[in-house]
Specification:
It is built from five helices and eleven strands, in the order ββαββαβββαβββαβα. With 178 residues, the protein is an alpha/beta fold. The protein is globular, with a radius of gyration of 16 Å.
Length: 178
């Protein structure tokens, strides 16, 4: 697995022990857009991002931390975050599906959509690409190999107001251990 370094200064350079890996989606469709959002100097960041083509980018070393859980300092310090470039939850209007950024105006083509059991009011989700699905378990296993006792969860598992990812989301559900 090739991990491309994309150095960021938006993290806290304090070494902490990790025992939680949190899986997120970007709620956007491009790597560039996600990098721009995470580039805002606010200490909200993730360690890794997986692009639609399966490329893996690392923003800062695993032993350091940034806010990404929305559940407070303790979880931020003990966790590693991975973002998948993906629109996430979608809203159906007539026979089209829309992503929520820009007031539900971005249309997502049906072949890129998966329908799941209703989760927190949503039933349609943007699919991960085959390349993302292929690299996800490799990246998760690689990270877990460096941190004994690491648990894996989704952002939605950790915080009840989050939607990333629903419990039955293919390629993600088999990675979680919580």
């Amino acid at each position: 697995m090739n991990i491309m370094q994309y150095p960021s200064q938006d993290y806290v350079a304090e070494k902490t022990h990790k025992n939680l890996l949190v899986l997120h989606y970007t709620a956007g469709g491009t790597l560039g857009g996600a990098i721009a959002s995470l580039g805002i100097r606010d200490y909200v960041n993730v360690h890794y991002m997986v692009d639609r083509d399966g490329g893996v980018y690392q923003f800062f070393p695993e032993e350091y931390w940034a806010y990404h859980t929305g559940t407070g300092l303790r979880d931020a310090k003990r966790s590693i975050g991975i973002e998948f470039v993906c629109w996430g939850h979608l809203k159906r209007k007539w026979n089209a599906l829309y992503a929520w950024p820009n007031n539900w105006k971005t249309i997502i083509p049906w072949p890129q959509v998966i329908r799941l059991k209703k989760f927190r009011g949503f039933q349609y989700w943007h699919k991960l690409t085959p390349e993302q699905e292929e690299i996800a378990p490799i990246l998760v296993d690689d990270i877990c190999s460096r941190w004994p006792g690491m648990q894996v969860c989704t952002h939605a598992d950790l915080k009840t107001t989050k939607l990333d990812f629903p419990p039955d989301y293919p390629a993600i559900r088999d990675l979680t251990t919580l």
